[in-house]
Specification:
The structure holds two protein chains of two kinds.
Chain A lengths: L1 E5 L6 H9 L5 E4 L21 E5 H6 L3 H6 L4 E2 L1 H10 L2 E5 L1
Chain B lengths: L1 E6 L8 H14 L3 E7 L20 H12 L3 E4 H6 L5 H6 L11 E4 L1 H10 L2 E5 L2
Parallel strand pairs in B: 1-2, 1-5, 2-3, 3-4
């Protein structure tokens, strides 16, 4: 199980690459510009169920996207939760 | 657990240093040890002692320095990436004939070997880049 951290928008090359790299049971954490994915609930990562996708709450709120994530019932973690994810996953990869 | 962080983004133009700093604080708050922060590529600009943001904004260099002072976290800066970008300590400034320098303790100029050592001795190694 790997923790994948995406820092760029869902339309970026890095986002396309991470989708290719994700395996069943992995976790995808969206931080920085990647939280813009909350604006598109049809994004392919939201509509699959083989891996977990989470948004970093601090970055969502900083961009005024907290409410929209709630409306679409998208899962979030805070910074403490981010650290907890790194405790649970021996491997992490940052995509940028 | 022992954590190591790699910071590859420049302050004020890239969110990576802010993310790394907030993550570092959360790591320490959860009782882990931060074994080191390595600044690479444009991340070396975090070490500039000439950084002068407006007083009501976070001074990232001072924030890293405070982290070092409170938790004894080593702050290593890649020497090759730093010299290219005009981030030099007193010794390198003298060696290259510059009239000023902008890297001081607790930041240290080191090589990529230090990055590999940090990576090997940490339980978790997280990269911050955008």
């Amino acid at each position: 199980m790997t923790l994948h951290i995406l820092t760029t928008a869902p339309t970026s090359d890095a986002a396309r690459q991470v989708e290719q790299a994700l395996n069943a049971g992995d976790t995808l954490l969206l931080i920085e510009a990647a939280v813009n994915a909350a604006l598109n609930p049809q994004w392919s990562c939201w509509t699959q169920s083989t891996y977990t996708v989470l948004l970093l709450e601090d970055d969502l709120v900083a961009r005024g996207l907290g409410d929209i994530a709630k409306t679409h019932q998208l899962a979030t973690v805070n910074m403490d939760g981010f650290v907890a994810l790194t405790e649970q996953h021996e491997q992490s990869v940052t995509w940028y | 657990m022992d954590y190591g962080l790699l910071v590859m983004g420049a302050p004020y133009s890239d969110p990576a240093p802010h993310s790394a700093l907030r993550f570092a604080e959360a790591v320490l708050a959860r009782g882990h040890r931060l074994a080191g922060v390595f600044f690479y590529h444009d991340g070396v600009h975090n070490a500039s002692s000439l950084m002068t943001p407006p007083q009501d904004e976070l001074n990232l260099r001072e924030a890293w320095k405070a982290l070092h002072e409170r938790h004894d976290v080593p702050l290593d800066v890649c020497i090759a990436a730093a010299l290219r970008r005009g981030i030099v300590n007193e010794a390198e400034a003298a060696r290259h004939g510059h009239s000023a320098y902008n890297l001081e303790a607790p930041f240290e100029l080191t090589g990529l070997g230090q990055l590999l050592t940090l990576q090997q001795r940490c339980d978790r190694f997280i990269t911050f880049a955008s």
